[in-house]
Every structure is written in C-alpha cells, then in structure tokens.
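Weekly sync notes, structure subgroup
Attendees: PM, AL, DS (notes)

Item 1: joint prediction request from the bench team. They want all two components modeled as one assembly rather than separately. Inputs as received:
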Amino acid sequence: MKRKLALVAVLASSVMGLAHANDVEAGIAQYREMLQDGNPAELFEMAGEELWTTPRGPKNATMEKCDLGKGPGVVAAAFVELPRYFADTGRVQDLESRIVTCMVSLQGFDEAKILKTGYAKGEQANVRDMATYVAGASRELKINVPQDHQKEREMYEVGKRLFFMRSGPHDFACATCHAEDNKRIRLQGLPNLTGNPGDGIGFAAWPAYRVGNGQMWPMQKRLNDCYRQQRFPEPKFASDATIALGVYMGVNAKDAKSIAPAIKR
Amino acid sequence: MGKPMRIRAKAANGETTVRALMAHIMEGGQRKDSSGNRIPAHHITDVTASHNGKTVLTAQWGSAVSQNPFLAFTFKGGAAGEKLAISWKDNKGDSRTDEVTIS
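Output from the run, pasted for the record:
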C-alpha cells in the first residue's frame, strides 16, 4: 500500500513533466520510474569516471586538465552549458567533440582515427563512457546553453534551419515529428523540440541507456539514429551539423532540468 | 576481476534494503552471430551477499538473467556503518566482490 502511494506520488510529481494526462504516457512513465532504480547508465558513468582519471594514450596523461567550458579540470555543471564556443579551437563544440579534443591535445590520441571509429568500438566506447560521466556530474541542473558569442548565435540559426529542412528519400525533417505538441509514434511520445518540452524531456534526457538494445547512447549517437530513422546519409561524428542541432535544441530547452544519464525504452 | 558494481544499502526499521547493479554481459549461450556460429555462454552463475561476514543471500543464476543485472533484496538486521559485501562468480571463472557501508 505504501509502495503504491509512493508510486502515485512519484507519478504526480514526475520529473518527466507529463503536461497531458495521457493514460499511455502515464503507464510508460511509471515503467520508467521503476527502471530508474537500477539504471545501467550508472555503470557507464563509473567506467567513465575511471577513464577520466587514468593516464592513457601516447602522452600517458589523464583527462583531468580538460577544459569543458568552465575551466581546466572543472567537470561539475559543465554538461548543461554545452554546446558552447571554445577559443582554443575557434569553434562551437558539444560534449563529445570536446572530449575528443582533450583526448587529442592532452593524451595524444589520433583525432581522425577516433572520428572514423564506429559507435561503441575502440576509443569511441571510451568517449561514450566519459560523456556519460560528465553528463552525470550535472544531474538535476538546469540546461543553460550560452548564446553570448557570435558563433554560438550563428550555430543556433544553423540548427534551426537544419531542424526544419526537409530532405532525404522520405522528404523528412526533424520538424516533421518534433514540431507539434502531444504527438506520438505508436507508443513513443514525440517532444516538441521547437520550444521547451519540460524537465527531463528531449535534449534534457540524453545521454541515456536504451533498455531495448542494452546500449548507452550519448547525444551524437541519438542524433545519428534520428538521421538513420529519416533515412538521411549518415552524419560525421561531431560534425557542425549535429552540433548546430544540439545548440538549437539546447537553447530552446533553457532551464529544463537535465536528468542525464537517463533510461529509455 | 570483473567490472565494479554499484551497491546501495539502506537500513531502516530493523531491516536493510540492498540494491546492486552488476556490470556483466550475461551472454545466454543460445544466440548465434552473423556467421551462424553459437556465441558461447558467459554469465554469472553464483551470487553471494554477506553482512559483517555472515551470508544473507545466495543465488544461482542461469541464462535467463539479462545483461547488467539489477538485484534488490531486503534482509533482517543491519545498521548504518556496518559492512555489506556482494560477490559474484561467472561460468568462465571470473569473479568480483564489492563492499559498501550501510547508510
């Protein structure tokens, strides 16, 4: 009885932010709440933390001097301010591209090789684990993607255009599925990403562990799969296009609480 | 030595609730790869939980337990500050033990 009450209370104040009292959505949210308890994402988080502090690569150095936007070595609260502009590379970067930058500059890894490596293989698996760790260090904080720099504002505009651009063999755009409220595909709710979909939804829910295939998906993998679902050509890892989409969604989701690393269907 | 587990143990009202997340591929042994060859079984076979050195739970697992198993259980006794250890052994001889302090 106590457990049932707890579940009801949890549903009522769910961080999933159920704006519409949809029975199907409520059931899925309840299932997710129960899964939260043993979220395997935490295992990837632990692995990522270990990777962060272990000397690796040709230079045998740790990642502890990596600047994720809040100064060298500052991991806490860095995730919710990404993507952002970095003066040392002169470009707007998201979490994963920044991790690769640090792996190259601090540890001496080969950038081209990492960018070409497939998801969860070789060093990409380590990028994934470290991205999960860094995201976890911003748990429950508010998304706050900056727009102070000219390039950050440009990337927002680029992201917006890419979001609405219909292309590919099915004439799809991100907006085809994600530009209206209260839509769903089968039993999967589709957040409206042209605005703020709420705490822990959309941009604020990734990286996340996909129960269905047992995989830990950071944002780059999620965007890659969005493009795969639309039957677009495969985007390059950490390309400007994917980062621009991140800026667009991130800025739109301002002040939404991040629940990363989360758990998904 | 297997990969680290994430264990939480909380004592309340004379009982301790333990929640453990184990990192393990848990390959059942019936799947086939793209060439049609059977992927050999690789999964946890035994789990033991002990409180202050005394066994409070034992489990024998087979191929039905899924990847990255999550185990939650409650035992009578235990108080904040005491030790709770969980160990597992798999069919390839690998093992892992992690210990936490009950909160």
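Discussion: The beta strands of chain B are 6-12, 15-21, 44-51, 54-60, 70-76, 83-90, 95-101.
Action: AL to compare against the crosslinking data before next sync.
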